[in-house]
Amino acid sequence: MKIYSHTIQGKRAYQQDRFHVEEGRVIVADGMGGHANGDLAAQAVVNSVLAKGKSLANVLESLSIADDQCINAHDGRGSTAIVAAFKEDSIFVCSVGDSPVYHCNLKDLKQFQAHCLPVFVLDEDPYSGSLTNGIGFMSRVSIQIANLRPGDVYILATDGVTISPVDISKMLRAWDGVSNFAQELVEVSYNAGSSDNITAVVLHA
Question: What would the DSSP string read from start to end of 37-97?
């Protein structure tokens, strides 16, 4: 598995995104902007996940621990969370909140003109856009378990990545498969006017 990552503070006054990349596991957390200590909430996600193993049960336990830590801080802090754990032929992704996760296969994109598709329905109100589920007020964890195929691409991002799935698909068709595609996603989002912290991690099987 090749892993590409990139983050920038962007146009925000401070950085509330946190991420971690290691062999077999990736974590992305987006501290809630406009709330106290969103950066601490995002860091709590990373720390809690790293303190446990890479099994699905471990990840679910770690997200619950981070949720409790944020609740017990009594200051309204919160974060989104994405955790992906993978082996040679399998992957699972857990998500809490509205940070986007996309999946596609490069061979399908180029041969069948397929598109990257969101893996999860985002936990947000369709009218106000406000977050309805997150670390600090967690009601559920969305989970996808899948077999990995050669050419599979998973994109884990914070909502500062504002590119549509259709445009991401176009970018992937033109990608050389070597350069840092996560950096490209971040830079395109920033240049298109994204006003948030921007983080992307790309997994390429």
Answer: THHHHHHHHHHHHHTS-SSHHHHHHHHHHHHHHHHHHTS---B-EEEEEE-SSEEEEEEES
Quote the CA–CA distance of 41 and 72 in Å, as a whole number. 11
Angle 181-191/165-174 helices, nearest 10 degrees? 130
pLDDT bucket at 36, cuts 50 / 70 / 90: confident
0.90 surpassed by pTM? yes
Extract the tokens encoding 178: 């070597």
pLDDT in tens, 134-159: 999 999 999 999 999 999 999 999 99
**Distance, CA of 151 to CA of 196 (rounded, Å):** 30
Which residues does residue 3 pair with via DSSP β-bridges, in sequence order?
203
Could you tell me whether strands 152-157 and 101-105 are parallel, antiparallel, or unpaired per DSSP bridges?
A: antiparallel
Please tell me the distance from the alpha carbon of residue 162 to that of residue 175, in angstroms, as a whole number.
18
Pull the structure tokens for residue 50: 């790293």
For strands 152-157 and 198-204, give the pairing. antiparallel
